[in-house]
Task: structure prediction
Amino acid sequence: MSAAFLAGASLVAAACGSSSKTARPTSLSPRNPNTSASSSPATGSGPVDVLYAGSLVDLMNNDIGPGFHASTGYTFNGTSGDSGALANEIKGKAVVGDVFISANPSKDVGLEGTANGDWASWYSLFATSPLVLGYNPNSKFAKALETEPWYKVLAQPGILVGRTDPATDPKGVLTVTALDDAATTYNEPALKTLGRQPSDVFAENTLVGRLQAGQLDVGFFYGVEAAAGHIATVALTGVPSSLEAKYTVTVLNKAPDTAAADAFVEYLLGPAGAQALAKQGMATMKPLSVTGTAPASLQGILSGA
Result:
């Protein structure tokens, strides 16, 4: 990998990295006991802090966030990152949040119980999005990706691949699984090696920018972020169809503003949120899958009543 590429990558990382957050004074608001799925989300003012999977950056910043503000008056204040890294920061009190959106339910489970700080006691699986391979149309490998099997193209020398860290990000785990499965199925040992090269690992919320800037030939994405970023993709044929994001949402038990958090969940899971998710090709859960005991104030929207 050239020095020029590394220098360019550093610049993109600085431009695209997620912002850090510190605790802020917040006046606590009571939950609205009259909220139901049939009504609009409660209105109010001030920020709602949403910690969310980096694959949803464009969706949150360009659609959900502005729509939520217009509908309720609350201000969307988002922090994106690898789901596992965000969960660790929540437990370490490095970030303050009202709502947590993960790309895999295991990250919610990791916040449950006394040993984990009792940050979460429930979560709802609300949408899924498949793992896909995105590519830069100006890459010298673009034509091959459009005409040849993806696993043969990725086995070619010199291709610049981007993926996320399997130690912290669910998508990173799925990517390694896809590469390992393809390596075995199609007798392409180079793919197994590719899944273990640390030089290919980048923060989730920088991959789209790197690909669009031409610093990567290909990258592993969820369909939702590829659609939002207008990224050309090829399907990962020959690997399990279960390789997908499983997006969950919960209100953190120590949320500074539970009223604002409830309003955000109601918007996300309501008609306007569902429309925004569908527009990006996400499959929404009907009915919603809920694990644990959600607060009474959200029972209506979670039950679909």
